[in-house]
Write the structure tokens for this entry.
Amino acid sequence: MAAAASLQSSLSRRLTTQDASFLYGESIHGPMHIGSVSLFDGRLEFDSLVRQLEQRLHLIPRYRQRLNFVPFNLHHPTWEDDPTFQLSNHLKLHKLPPGTTEEQATRMAMDVHATILDRSRPLWEMHLFDALEDGRSLLLWKIHHCMVDGVSGIELSTVVMDFEPEPPATEPPGQPWSPASPAAPDASMVEAALDMAQQQIDAARRNQTIYRQPSNVTERVQLLTTAGRVISTMVSQPVVPAPWNTPPVTRARSLAWARMSFGEVRGIRGVLGGTVNDVVLALLSEGAGRYLQEHGVNVRGQQMRIGCPVNVRKEGESGALGNRVSMMFPTMPAEPMDPVSRLAAVRKETDRIKAAREPQALELMMESQDAVAPALMATASFAMNSASDARATFAIPQLPTAPTLQLPAFGLNFVATNVPGVQVPQYLDGKRMTDTIGLMPLGGNLGYGVAIGSYNQQLYIGMMAEPRVMPDVHRMKFHVEAAYADLLAVATAASNSSAAPGA
């Protein structure tokens, strides 16, 4: 509950350009919400869950706010209180047939997750699936990416959930909630014009401060040059043509997930070197390489590129909702490798990226998006999204199992985001959360993506796929787990060898 005060005090009404880009980039077949699938040890009582959320809504003001779009998209939308807010529109109960397995419940949750959020309401939903064959409960959480990124989503969950089965009572609000009156269209336009003017003034002041120091100018030029080189590489150097990169990607979703000991992963890092992120990237890239080879893709001499969001929150920004991310794009061999060589290749690439300061360079380049007119962003995105949805609507149900022609592919193969979580047990309505798996958006030509998270000393790898282009995501899970077993075996052998007498 400690995050509650900061969540309330750090709200900003108007979406930033980065926040709004997730809104403009959304389509029916490419919904831009994130979320999680969480499993609980025991049955969550729906009525109790409703009461608990009702008691804490005042701690999460954004949960009762909807988007207010400015006429003609003169500026990005603002968050406004929803005068028609009803918790029943956001918290849903799904009664499962007797004997429902975890796999079956997950498929049902993915069907619900595939649907786009209603923009006329606050952009979040929670769906309780009650109950699995062993008495557990499954909770699906959907929240739009324009509201939170992975880090702020984890912080938000600490307000909804508890760190003990029987927490102290939530302090009630000082006064009953009363929604503020929505802004009239003409007032929204005036406010948008003033905000645009203020934004330009603030930008001019920042630039004035920067350009007073020649060293700052030199640094920015170097970073922008680096950013240009990164983008140029992505569009000019091909990557392995993976079947899951074959557009169009429809809105159907499937999920497989792997759980690993966080202590073992840290142990691999300690013996073989690198970071936890390096170890995870080694598992994902090796698993993907083996999957591609299994499916008849020619991986010899090919490269694989993974998009990795990088948290760029600064000190003092903890608790702020919205998005504060940059990116890095490690490129590594697509051909299967032995465990030590794979981790070494990943370490070499991530060390190069850090030395070149590529995430900082791309962050600076993203800031230039503020100069693009919101109306232009919205219009261009609408045109691209409409074309993508039209293609997805008439897509064939499933691709051939083996490619007959491999054309060069450019850009990314998939996105993998790593969000550190809470390392102690969490509870909801007195029930312990046993597992939580992150969910990420797919769309365009990205029919596979990975959300990595940690919880209660376990590492979770959630592999999301569009079943038309990847009908067997469970095979990707198999290969990732096999790569983990191989890497762990090598690290264990090396550790035992160094600990042996006389070593």
User: Anything to note?
Assistant: The two ends are 50 Å apart (CA to CA). The first helix runs from residue 4 to 9. The chain has two domains: 4-189, 229-499.
